Amino acid sequence: MCHKVSSALKCWASPSDNQNISIITIFSKIIAGEIPCYKIAEDDDCFAFLDINPLVKGHTLVIPKREVDYFFDLSDEEIAAIQVFAKRVALAIQKAFPCRKVGQAVLGLEVPHAHIHLVPMQSEGDMLFCNPKLKLTNEEFVEIASQIKRFL
Ligand code: 5GP
After folding, report:
1. Entry pTM
2. Does residue 105 have its Cβ closer than 6 Å to ligand 1?
3. pLDDT tens across 45-67, in order?
């Protein structure tokens, strides 16, 4: 099955997909530019943008362009590529938002499009996904994205 949002997107035939329906994920629409986002970085295979409900300032999502639900269904090569891409983004986040470390988490319970959360941490409490999320203005998101991009 091939999810064709635009030619910019990668297609995926799932070996386990035995249904004849598919739903284009919100993240594929973001990659295609059909839904706005605060973009941080992009290459041929991966895309990074700010989480719209951040745990802390700088909380960023890194996704493969190929639409795959479960992170561990990505191929070894895709996992290697997304991790190298995420490393570049994480180092830029850390410079923009000085922190003890940038934490990485894979959940995927809400959006069925594999993604890595990158969260600048001062303590492990910053990685608790049940914490209340920040409510930021458009201007704040724009400023955060521009601060991170300065270090890429
Ligand atoms: P998970 O699937 O890992 O549980 O969480 C998905 C994450 O995607 C959440 O942190 C949520 O805030 C974020 N998210 C969901 N929809 C959008 C969206 O339309 N734009 C952005 N930038 N983030 C989103």
Report:
1. 0.89
2. no
3. 999 999 999 999 999 999 999 99
